[in-house]
Design brief:
mainly beta, 5% helix, Thrombin, subunit H, 82 residues, 1 helix, 6 strands, 6-stranded antiparallel barrel
Length: 82
């Protein structure tokens, strides 16, 4: 937690958009491991990558909670590749 991460996606069709944030938490929801992040994940960005500062894939961006700033979630890379 606290690690700087970068989201890459296509919010509203704007391809290759880069966002920066922090790993806010590690969560398990219905048996699936997620990375909670303050890096932006907007509609159209799900399915993009969440990367650390070395360029390693940390997670696959999935969803954000509406009407809540900074509550963004990505499926942990290890979980995705299982």
């Amino acid at each position: 937690m606290g690690e700087t991460v970068y989201s890459i996606g296509a919010p509203k069709g704007l391809e290759a958009t880069l966002g920066q944030g922090l790993v806010s938490g590690l969560r398990t929801i219905k048996g699936v491991r997620y990375v909670q992040t303050s890096a932006p994940i907007s509609p159209g960005s799900s399915g993009g990558g969440l990367f650390d500062s070395a360029g390693n894939l940390v997670a696959i961006t999935t969803f954000h909670i509406r009407d809540a700033d900074g509550l963004n979630f990505a499926i942990a890379a290890e979980e995705y590749f299982r």
